[in-house]
Specification:
single chain, TIM Barrel
Amino acid sequence: MQVDIILNEYDSPRAMAEQATLAESYGIRAIWSASYATGRDPFLSLAPAAQATSKILLGPLAVSPMELHPLKITQELLTLNELCDGRAIIAVGAGGGVLAAMGIKRSQMVESVRECVEIIRAALTGEDVTYRGDIYTAHQFDARWAKDLPPPQIYVGASQERMSYMATEKADGLMGSDLIPPLIRLTKGWVDEGLARHERTGQPFGVSNFWAWHIKKDKQASRREACRELVLRGILRPRYTEVLLSKEDSDFVQENKGLFWGAFARGAGTIDGAPAHIVDALIEGLSSAGDLDDVDREIERFKQYASLGLTEIAIRVHGNPVDAIKLIGERVVPAVQ
């Protein structure tokens, strides 16, 4: 299993370059720049890192064609790929917070992502792009300037069946989010079936998982951070809570999700009104949290995930990314890669 790092959206491009250089020194496979409505541009943020590094993959996560036209996504991706000499990577998704900030409702999600990937692929041929899809059009786009470099890797953000099948046809890999063992098995089944359907069995195809990392020296600080972010873990959908909790506790979460959203909105380290045993079970099941004595437990978790079919784990660091990268680089990477 390869290890990727997802950086937060608050650090400057200069700081991200330093973090990417550090990650590269540990043999980490990729640095992802998180794309959020409150953050910096996920492509431009990686420009200094592209110049400062030589091996690590670099890319935005996740960009939706509903927030940026696929032709513009292609331009930015190929420009980043040129800056880093063919090391660009991208995750194309259906969108989330950025769309909400723009007041745009998601629609035709699988079709939109499919057409975006097809437009990127068309540009990679080096020929003039003439594309007329059901949703997007791109023509008179010439990317010959980009064809002599190794092509960027294209991942699709996918946690459902149709998107996963489409990814196995069009993309180089997929990235799920907060996938726990039953969902990893389900996703791996979709991947295997899709690759067979599209006659790609045996070809390289990445299966990654966005995973929250809250491990710190201070266990209580870790728990506060994990509490604050907890509602984002799979948006606490029933397919998560029903696995990790009793029916009664799962029903409580579904009926009182506002408590969890409130903690996130306030930046609070506690979820007032939610029983501690529910919060603890969700944190344990949906993230890596605890102190330094808990790192070995998380290594075993990642090894289990690899045995279930993950080829990569994309670790979303919080708080101080330098400390997190050092800890992951020194203890996790040697144990799982």
